[in-house]
Amino acid sequence: MAELQLKSVEKTYGSGFKAVHGIDLTVGEGEFMVLVGPSGCAKSTTLRMIAGLETITGGEIRIGDRVVNDIVPGKRGIAMVFQNYALYPHMKVKNNLSFGLRLKRRPKAEIDDATQDVSKVLEIEELLERLPKQLSGGQAQRVAVGRALIKHPEVFLFDEPLSNLDAKLRAYMRVRITDLHKRLKAEGRPATVVYVTHDQVEAMTMGDRICVMREGHIMQVADPATLYERPANAFVAGFIGMPEMNIVDAVLMTNRVPHITIGDQTIQVDEGLGERLSETTGPVKFGIRPQHLELCPPGTENALSGTVTTVEFLGHEINLHIGIHGQIFVAVVPSDHLTAIPKRGDAVALKPIGHRIHLFDRYSEENISLAGL
Amino acid sequence: MTASFDLNPQNLLSTSEPATAMEIKLRRRGRISSAMRYSVLLIFGLIMLYPLIWLIGASFKTNSEIFASPSFWPKDPTLSGYIKGWETSTPYTFGRFFWNTFLIITPKVIGTAISCTLVAYGFARFDFPGKRILFMTVIATLLLPNVVTRIPQYLLFRDIGWLDSFLPLWVPSAVAGDAFFVFMLIQFLRAIPRDMEEAARVDGANTLQTLFYIVVPMLMPAIVSVCLFQFMWTMNDFLGPLIYLSSIDKYPVSLALKLSIDTTEAFDWNQILAMSVLALAPSLTVFFIAQKYFIEGISTGGVKG
Q1: Does the A239-370 domain belong in CATH 3.30.1160.10?
Q2: Which of B195, B206, B217 sits opposite A90 (nearest CB)?
Q3: pLDDT, mean over chain A
Q4: A344 burial class (0-12, 13-18, 19+ CB within 10 angstroms)?
Q5: Given this model, what pLDDT does residue B5 score?
Q6: Contacts of A134 in chain B (CB under 8 A)
Q7: Parallel, antiparallel, or unpaired: how do β-strands A155-159 and A78-81 relate?
Q8: Under an 8 A CB cutoff, do B201 and A78 touch?
Q9: Pairing verdict, β A192-197 and A155-159
Q10: For B165-189, what is each residue's pLDDT tens digit?
Q11: Which chain B residues have a beta carbon less than 8 Å from that of A79?
């Protein structure tokens, strides 16, 4: 197992399109790093560059103490699990598993042992004689993981491996993969993992740390809690969390009583936050997660008044879409606490929980409310 | 008046209820229409097949009977056409000509399969300078009539000194000279996802190992088709051997058939027909053996989309 380092890695295609803009990332030994971002953010390209399936046009990739820029994929000490599993359709499962070892001309006994070992770990022993087309999605997925595991690579690469599974199986495999990672760590052979996904649930539940990407730039690298509590910028704030964080234009006034004006409504901000931002006055972006808005009767002080436009009943909670000055705020309200479910057209007020407010620079979109923390 | 529709699927599917007059009428109409369709197909099928059936029948007739009756069934069947035809009017038996055909076809088919796969793999999977122009050239030669290149090719092979040998028949195919096959394999390869090849590269396979262990097995149905086409076209090729081969001991079946027409004044039609039937046999056999590869879609199943 080894540390993986990306130093100002760039990718420019022949057409002149720059997909990756000099990213720096270090994945520690045995760490589970998730690359997440919307489609087109170059997360898969980054993974493929680490694998060696894509050339890099600038910077340096290190696995352990080797620079692997010009080393072919097979010699980088990596193993990869593909989105489509990419099992060899004409080979039985056992031959799929052992293909890499057979290419290296390892002794037959060693290959057999390794195949047995891996199939035991992944519980695919009874599938060894089958062809890939005789496997279900979940089974094929496990074989694909097995094919990576058998090589004892220094770095595991996963390219959206669960996106072809149905929701239930996806949740199950998610746990299986994280369990496997923990088990390998406990057995003293920790696996360095880079896992690409567009699904923030996978990212939040699986990653030791998460790297949020956007258009070939890294927006933030942090553990899941930090990413949620202290997003570095409006993009990360909007990307992590369901439903999305409400982010609207506002004006921050820090003279005398610090307050924020949204449209013609004003709410006071935390004193702590006001003090930290005493230098900043002017246009900002105001952000608050739907879970951090309290539903109040209209006219409540320090709350934003508006009208209900949509009610989404989810059982344990309700997503309320509330129009405030032409902008829609989403609030998640636990349904147990409500005496009556608000209806479309009802006048309500939303009170942001003070210390949960985020303020972003209007132009750079950096999170300025983190300043001084 | 109100009409009610019973949309309960169980009722729609049930057959236990007595059929109404309408249903009986519809069923009868369906039966009549399919009977008509099948008879039309059968008639046209027979018309198409009749020459072949006649050929087989006539090969057992005597020479005098062949033109006497249009029926395909011989009155007094004889094997003399086969026996005499096999002996031929040359010092060689027809076995020699079959052997020559085999000697031409085997290296040609193998060479085509290997060279076209390599070239198609290159075009379909790699980027290299001049790829577009080279590919356009391949397509352009596809559109070029064969006849146009005959004379320059003949002169070329004459200068090299390959005339009256099998080399002019083998070599162009062994260097992927058949643009059609290259094009066919490229199209097939484009439909196969690259993931498996990338997985093989991550597993440590080099380019040729990837081609051999991963691409070729997935490409097998297409390669079999290529071999089959090349086999049948070479078997039927008359012009190629006619131009390049001059000694009778090197003649393939296609030339030998013509030979028996040339050498005698009164044609022994039954011998020619008998040998034609034999000449058809390899193509038909190979076709039926290889047919299942067309059906077998080996490339599906490895990737779920």
Answers
A1: no
A2: B217
A3: 91
A4: exposed
A5: 47
A6: 301
A7: parallel
A8: no
A9: parallel
A10: 999 999 988 888 888 899 989 988 9
A11: 202
Task: Name the interface residues of A facing B (CB cutoff 8 Å).
Answer: 51-53, 72-75, 78-80, 82-90, 99-100, 103-104, 131-134, 137, 140, 147, 151, 164
User: Under DSSP, is residue A23 helix (H, G, I), strand (E, B) or coil?
Assistant: strand
Name the pLDDT band for B266 (thresholds 50, 70, 90): low
CB-CB neighbours of B168 under 10 Å: 21
**Record: contact A85-B214, CB cut-off 8 A:** no
Min Cα–Cα distance to chain B from A147, Å: 9
Count of residues in chain B: 305
- Do A86 and B305 make contact, defined as CB atoms within 8 angstroms? no
Q: What is the pLDDT of residues A22-35, one digit of tens each?
A: 999 999 999 999 99
Interchain CB contact of B214 with A (< 8 Å)? yes
Return the structure tokens found at B259: 């030979």
Other CB atoms within a 10 A radius of the CB of residue A304 amount to 27
Stated pTM of the model: 0.81
Q: Which residue of B196, B202, B213, B223 is the best one to mutate when testing the A interface, meaning the one whose CB has the most A CBs within 10 A?
A: B202
In CATH, which superfamily holds the domain spanning B89-295? MetI-like (1.10.3720.10)
ipTM of the complex: 0.85
Helices (H) and strands (E) in chain B, counts: 15, 0
What backbone torsions phi and psi does residue B177 show, to the nearest 5 degrees?
-75, -15
Answer for the pair A286, A329: CB distance below 8 angstroms, yes or no.
no
Torsion over CA: A359, A364, A365, A369 (sign): negative
* Percent of chain A predicted with pLDDT > 90: 67
CB contact under 8 A, B304 and A87: no
For residue A220, the distance in angstroms to the closest alpha carbon of chain B comes to 29
In chain B, where does the domain assigned CATH 1.10.3720.10 lie? 89-295
Report the alpha-carbon distance of residue B222 to residue B184 in Å, rounded: 8
User: Residue B147 is encoded by which pair of tokens?
Assistant: 């006849």
The per-residue pLDDT for range B212-246, each reduced to its tens digit, is 999 999 888 889 888 988 998 899 888 889 999 98
CA distance A352 to B31: 75
Regarding the domain delimited by A4-229, which CATH topology (the fold level of the hierarchy) does it fall under?
Rossmann fold (3.40.50)
- For residue B213, what is the DSSP state? I
Q: Do A79 and B202 touch (CB under 8 A)?
A: yes
